[in-house]
Amino acid sequence: MFTGLCAFPLTPMDEFGTDDRAYSGLIERLINAKVDSICVLGSTGNYAYLPREERARLVKLAVEVAGTLPVMTSVGALRTREILLAADDAQQAGAQALLLAPVSYQKLTEEEVFTLYETVSRAVSVPICVYENPGVTHFDFSDALYARLAELPAIQSIKLAGGYPDRERCIDRIAALRASLPERISLGISGDAFAVPALLAGCDSWYSVVGGLFPQLAMTLATQALNGQRERALTSNQALDPLWRLFGKYGSLRVVASAAVALNLVQEDCLPLPLALPDRQARNEIEQVITQLALA
Amino acid sequence: MFTGLCAFPLTPMDEFGTDDRAYSGLIERLINAKVDSICVLGSTGNYAYLPREERARLVKLAVEVAGTLPVMTSVGALRTREILLAADDAQQAGAQALLLAPVSYQKLTEEEVFTLYETVSRAVSVPICVYENPGVTHFDFSDALYARLAELPAIQSIKLAGGYPDRERCIDRIAALRASLPERISLGISGDAFAVPALLAGCDSWYSVVGGLFPQLAMTLATQALNGQRERALTSNQALDPLWRLFGKYGSLRVVASAAVALNLVQEDCLPLPLALPDRQARNEIEQVITQLALA
After folding, report:
1. Dihedrals φ, ψ of B228, to 5°?
2. Partner of A146 at 20 to 30 A CA spacing, among A22, A291, B48, B173?
3. Beta carbons of B275 and A112 less than 8 Å apart
4. Are the CB atoms for A62 and A40 separated by under 8 Å?
5. How far is CA B216 from CA A30, B36, B273, B294, in A?
């Protein structure tokens, strides 16, 4: 579950519900590309915007469609009690791993976050991946907190924020965490632009947004980097610079959603308001880049 | 509604529900202190952690208890559709104003935020207070966005984040916004430590956390500052420095919750997990300060 390419598909939705057919279609593309695992209802899958019942239903649907492909799902929520219910739902639906970010409204303390993971760890029977994403959770994990979390048997992977705290220190941090954390803890990288350098620096897994829509592309990069084909992987990655720049400019969610619309994989209304696709000019820019990179 | 002291009470809750008796008791203290208005289910009232039904019930209860005292309530949520439902509920419950923060998981764009306020403005018949709180919403309002929002008739107040972007520029910003925005837009300040300087600089209202628990204290400060008793207000404010330092150290919510427990106004379990009261040492520190300031 926690090695190789884990692809994060969109959950197309409008104000009235989710588009289950388009959602299943996106998952089928991932099966066909032979990704190593998928994570439905990640940040890219807009888990935070969906009520409990819809989340439970969508995980069940993903497990049915995915067949033997391992499925992870996010169980993050503002309250511990909601997280515990989402974890129950996800396990009953057949999810093989749970992704948990310290979602917050009021900024959380280190002790609150540790207690949260400890509580959830004790309540579940499938492994947990700790989800670091300061851009949305506004919580910074210290190395000391990771060391404490790594002692909880349910915790088996950490999804690190790519390029955090900056490009250079991100790579140093991977080396330092790899040296200090037990071998059994898989280190994964998100923030697609940083995936290749991170995999070359020792990460075991790529938790990938782009892989959720363009799985072949992500598989190529992941395979090259994980096989230690350093120069080749770096060259492949550099070719994607125009895409990574769009991610930085509009946010990866808006870019992959715009691309999915352009490819007729999802309907125009695919994000939950107030989130919206960028304006026409930006979408033209996105369409040009996916054409230029032969992704269309 | 949008002038003077608006007090923000806690909503005591544990994992099983809210403590309605303690909640009503906190509101009664505010009536007795003759505050100008109250805002139930503000950030201090943990609105973000409560499901729709509980929010609707608590606003109704507040309006009943408050009698002739004007009641505002927060209608913030991650999705526009939830905000519209919360606004309907709040109006039906008798709320006289709606507080709306651009709550986010994915970082919002300026255009998304404008569209959100425009949509809600069109749907409501009571005034809206725009809620700036980058610490929890991670959105920065530009002066240009405020100018656009001020053209929406429903928007009648802006709740500015005190000390933002820093102590000095916060004061300059109040002067600049006061000069550029129409007179009909009330400017209010939150971030209690910055209230006195902000009121002296021209803010019309103090949206106050401390006022939700110690309304007499806040009324004294607000009255001095709004009556232009500059030196007196600044001296009163300086005396509260130990309290403002605790707010900075532990977060105002954890400090007022700890104080409310110490005063036997709420039960020990009063915050929604993963949020928790600080450790025993911090709580002793908080209790010492409220005793020292004769607030106990």
Report:
1. 75, 20
2. B48
3. yes
4. yes
5. 62, 12, 30, 12
Q: Is B119 on the interface with A (CB under 8 A)?
A: yes
**Residue with structure tokens 């032969």?**
A294
* β-strands A205-208, A4-7 pairing: parallel
Q: Residue B141 has what DSSP assignment?
A: P
The catalytically annotated residue of A23, A47, A117, A131 is A131
> Between the CA atoms of A226, A227, A231 and A232, what dihedral angle is there, to the nearest 10 degrees?
-90
- ipTM of predicted assembly, 2 dp: 0.97
3-state helix, strand, coil in chain A (%, to 5): 50, 15, 35
Q: Is B292 on the interface with A (CB under 8 A)?
A: no
A174 in Cβ contact with A203 (< 8 Å): yes
What CATH homologous superfamily does A4-238 map to?
Answer: Aldolase class I (3.20.20.70)
CB-CB contact of B97 with B2 (8 Å): yes
Which residues of B125-231 form beta strands (DSSP E)? 128-131, 155-161, 186-190, 205-208
User: What positions of B carry a catalytic annotation?
Assistant: 131, 159
> For residues A12 and A18, is the Cβ–Cβ distance under 8 A?
yes
Residue count of chain A: 296
Q: Residues A159, A164, A207, A250: which is the catalytic one?
A: A159
Task: Report how many Cβ contacts below 8 Å link chain A to chain B.
Answer: 89
Nearest chain A Cα to B108, which residue?
Answer: A275
Q: Is A163 helix (H, G, I), strand (E, B) or coil?
A: coil
Please tell me the distance from the alpha carbon of residue A232 to that of residue A295, in angstroms, as a whole number.
19
Q: Which stretches does DSSP call E strand in A137-228? A: 155-161, 186-190, 205-208
Q: To which residue do tokens 């829509």 refer?
A: A213
Is residue B44 part of an annotated ligand binding site?
yes
Contacts of B79 in chain A (CB under 8 A): 49, 272-274
* CA pair distance A254, A283, nearest whole angstrom: 9
Digits of tens for pLDDT over chain B (296 positions)? 899 999 999 999 999 999 999 999 999 999 999 999 999 999 999 999 999 999 999 999 999 999 999 999 999 999 999 999 999 999 999 999 999 999 999 999 999 999 999 999 999 999 999 999 998 999 999 999 999 999 999 999 999 999 888 888 999 999 999 999 999 999 999 999 999 999 999 999 999 999 999 999 999 999 999 999 999 999 999 999 999 999 999 999 999 999 999 999 999 999 999 999 999 999 999 999 999 998 88
The domain segmentation of chain B, as residue ranges, is 4-238
Burial zone of A125 (CB within 10 Å; 0-12 exposed, 13-18 middle, 19+ buried): exposed
B197/B213 Cα distance (integer angstroms): 21
How far is B107 from B86, CA to CA, in rounded Å? 22
- Contact (Cβ atoms closer than 8 angstroms) between residue A95 and residue A69: no
Q: Of A115, A138, A278, which is closest to B138 when you measure between CB atoms? A: A138
